[in-house]
């Protein structure tokens, strides 16, 4: 495997959807978890502050863009992302239906 890449991003969530969003994430579909793991993503967390979601994961592999694109080809992931899009609200400057990548400011190893 390749080097580890740390990824953090932010997304909004509809206030009325917080309960549903958290319920879905207590029981993420197994096919979605398998696709994420197969893409080299590990140590994945999502945090919430009011109506902001912050995600963090580590990617280990050699083809970051290709491995992430492979997730979007998995039927369960397509359905999951379509469902999450009904609950989420992209933050300013983000592409539609996309989390906004955050620059790393500090890292202590």
Describe this structure in words.
This protein has 109 residues and is of the alpha+beta class. Helices cover 34% and strands 29% of the residues. Strands 1, 2, 3, 4 and 5 form a five-stranded antiparallel sheet that branches. Helix 2 packs antiparallel against helix 3 (64-71). The longest helix is centred in the last third of the chain and has 11 residues, at 75-85. The protein is globular, with a radius of gyration of 14 Å. The mean pLDDT is 96.
Features:
109 residues; alpha+beta; globular
Number of strands: 5
Catalogue the unreliable spans.
Answer: none
Percentage of residues assigned to helices: 25-40%
Helix segment tally: 4
Topology:
Elements: E1 4-13, H1 18-26, H2 30-38, E2 41-49, E3 52-60, H3 64-71, H4 75-85, E4 88-89, E5 100-101
Antiparallel strand pairs: 1-3, 1-4, 1-5, 2-3
Helix pairs in contact: 2-3
């Amino acid at each position: 495997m390749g080097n580890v890449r740390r990824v953090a991003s932010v997304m909004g969530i509809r206030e009325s959807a917080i309960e549903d969003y958290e319920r879905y994430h207590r029981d993420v579909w197994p096919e979605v978890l398998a696709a994420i793991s197969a893409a080299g993503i590990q140590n994945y967390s999502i945090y919430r502050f009011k109506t902001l979601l912050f995600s963090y994961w580590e990617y280990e592999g050699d083809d970051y863009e290709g491995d992430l694109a492979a997730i979007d080809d998995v039927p369960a992931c397509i359905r999951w992302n379509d469902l999450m899009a009904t609950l989420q609200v992209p933050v300013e400057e983000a592409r539609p239906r996309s989390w906004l990548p955050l620059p790393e400011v500090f890292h202590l190893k």
